[in-house]
Amino acid sequence: GAAGHGHKPSGITRWLTTVDHKDIGILYGTYGVTAFLWGGVAVLLMRVELMTPTSNLIQPSLYNALLTSHGITMLFLFGTPIIAAFANYFVPLLIGADDMAFPRINAIAFWLLPPGALLIWAGFFTIPLPIEIGPAETSWTMYAPLSVEQPNLGVDLMMLGLHLTGVSATMGAINFIATIFTERGEDVTWANLDIFSWTILTQSGLILFAFPLLGSALV
């Protein structure tokens, strides 16, 4: 209750244990900006390579890896989380709710994302393991023939990371739907629900169908 909220932890402990929708919105935003920087560096290297027809600054395999990383990062690690950042922060405020319907699930959904990103990017890091891990070079769409010509552990790790981001997005979608349906204030009806909350509700419904299908397609 109110007494418990009077003793909120501070510093790093606060950010690691928070279930407050505003804090989690800020965490999503920070994460999304970090992913954006990674994806931006990847596309910058690609564009430098394409400046002249004879440019050979990076190897073809690295170019494919950067293309793969950039596309997946911008869609799953930046685009989806940055929308979740604004939604987490503003939807409860707009509908007159104290918090999300499931605050702990909200926190879990976020904390699935950092390990997902590390798995997706794992091939770029030099890790002393018996099995060589290289970055995935499948292109971000993972179409054949690139997707079937690379028996690389980096591809498996990338797919595992995508599963984590998919589970995160699905949990968040369920939470937003439940929040908008059940946590609205007495004066907030379907007739006067704001357009942003309608947008998040519609997007969450789409995610609920799309991301599980993506996960099954990856397998």
Measured as a percent range, the helix fraction is 55-70%
The total strand number stands at 0
Number of domains: 1
Tell me the quaternary state: single chain
Low-confidence stretches: none
What is the global morphology? elongated
Average pLDDT rating? 90
**CATH architecture assignment name:** Up-down Bundle
For the record, what CATH class applies? Mainly Alpha
Provide a concise account of the structure shown.
The chain has 219 residues and is mainly alpha-helical. It has a single domain (10-218), classed as Cytochrome c oxidase-like, subunit I domain (Cytochrome C Oxidase, Chain A).
Describe this structure in words.
By secondary structure, this protein is mainly α. It has a single domain, classed as Cytochrome C Oxidase, Chain A. It has helices spanning 2-5, 11-17, 21-49, 60-95, 103-111, 113-121, 153-182, 195-218. Helix 3 runs antiparallel to helix 4 (60-95), helix 5 (103-111) runs antiparallel to helix 7 and helix 7 runs antiparallel to helix 8 (195-218). The mean pLDDT is 90.
